[in-house]
Amino acid sequence: MNSPGIFPTFFLSGFECSTFDWKDRGRRDLSAELQHYSHADEDYRMLAGLGIGVAREGIPWPLVDRGNGDYDFSLIDPLLDAQRRNRVLPIWDLCHYGYPDGLDPWSDAFVQRFAAYARAAAAHVARHAHHGPLCFTPINEPTFWGYMGGEWGWCAPRGRTADDRRRWTAQLATADIAAVKAIRADHPDARMVHIDPLIWVVPPRDRPNLADEAHRESYDDAYLAWDIISGQKRPELGGSGEIIDILGFNNYSFGQMEYTGGGKPNLPLEPGDDRIRPLCSLIEEAWAKYRRPCIIAETSGLYGGRVDWLNDLMNEALAAVKRGVDLHGICLFPAVDMTDWNTGEWLHMGLADVEPLPSGALMRKPFLPYLEALHRWQRRLKRVTALDDDPFDTAVDLGDVREAAERISATPDADWH
């Protein structure tokens, strides 16, 4: 029996679009650094040719919001044009770690201004959208931004304590809820994807007394934004299951960590560490807490490890499907490589790598082993390997995904490559 999913393809992708006020470097626009605005048609054409019909994309709030209700969305018009030409459905990040200069992040005005901007952004993309539904991620990774902007001091608002971090995460969740309500006042059918990392934190082997702190990070702090947006905490802020809508789980190898005591990032567990948990279990736990449709919203290996990473990820995701998780897609992120935020070095984690040319242009170079592995999985799940002229005529049949999970006998495995 056909079981339609939310999206036209099971595999998604996306583009790095951070606009943070970064340490001592000031405002950055990672889409510009990637030359994505000028390469938009090429970037989206690659996705269509790979059978990927959905892409996470960003609207740079600090750059389009001029204040006093004045917005200039011309920066994203090349992206809208490329999406239309190549028939790729966007999930729009409305705030990817950046807010306008001069705006007090701790004020009620922050929440109000973000909601007004979100409504205007939704109106703009709705006027130019080639296909529905309208999909948004109001604030990307509010819990992770809580850490890097609220406790580690990497970017604005440059907090330095756990209290700052929790307060900042709660402020972001409050703004997120307000934005969802503002958008749905005009577009009641708009879908929302709420994204944060899946993590697992353990105490050091020689410090079992830190088990409570590690457990708190894994189960309280990691879920704080989702808890508020879903209404499980701070219900007076207006969260609910309809507000949180779709869950997005980000997963990278460094998401399983040893607790270091706070104030700085935890230490990633090394491959083979017996404290690593199967990703399937993390997916199942997060999904079971909220019982909402979900996607893997970001995932990738590095360099030559991208193929093994995809194979492991697919096994874990399908094992979660066998356990009843309502999984609607997997986002291979990024589509085109991104740089380390600190060093500027290319990370070699995209569907395509980047080769800087003497002219300053950034040439896209698809990483063929990764693409071949993607196509193998598309065929195993009975998915297309290239978009046709009307990729939106039918949604993904999730029955095919469940059947594939049973056919390949997907089982959880903590021994990641």
From TrEMBL:
Tree of life domain: Bacteria
Gene3D superfamilies tied to this protein: Glycosidases
Designated name of the protein: Beta-glucosidase
Organism: Sphingomonas humi
